[in-house]
Amino acid sequence: MTQKTDKVKNLEELFVDTLKDIYDAEQQIVKAMPKMIEQAQANELKQGFKDHLEVTNQQIVRLNKIFEELKMPAKGKRCKGMEGILKEGDEAMQETLERGVKDAALIAAAQKVEHYEIASYGTARTYAQMLGHQNIAKMLDQTAKEEGKADKQLTTLAESHINARAKA
Ligand code: FE
Ligand code: ZN
Ligand code: FE
Predict the structure, then answer these.
(1) CA of residue 97 to ligand 3 center, whole Å
(2) Which of 55, 78, 79, 151 could form a cystine bridge with 114, CB 3.0-4.6 A?
(3) How far is the CA of 79 from the centre of ligand 2 (A)?
(4) Comparing 53-67, 81-95, 138-152, which segment has the lowest mean pLDDT?
(5) What percent helix, strand, coil does the chain show, rounded to 5?
(6) Residue 46 falls within a domain, yes or no?
């Protein structure tokens, strides 16, 4: 048995690991979103994705500030969770041809992305509080709230008409 030498030793390291994961996840999202914008059929969904892409870019800026405050280089670590979620979403997108169904599949994929982010930012915020990084905790809380808002907007869109159209 080979021993892994890069084991996480304490909460501070686990915290930094969580930040690196989400930093990479956000970058994967920024790369994936133009295709989602292009594929969205309903205008409200297209616009919603465009808006969240802008918000996402600001969240990356915020993460850069957090790394700066920690006096660490902003560096991601491949987020396999987001990789899988985006891959699944891409497959679902390609498998659906009908307009309404495609939008329903896109919303489902986007909500999985948001939920991953809500979980990660919530965890990171709690670690930051426990470690006494109050300002960083505030920034992480702001992002967590933005992801929550995006998730709720997607639910509203799905309930209002996109899923109804997919059924028709
Ligand atoms: Fe985000
Ligand atoms: Zn991850
Ligand atoms: Fe998001």
Answers:
(1) 25
(2) 151
(3) 4
(4) 81-95
(5) 80, 0, 20
(6) yes
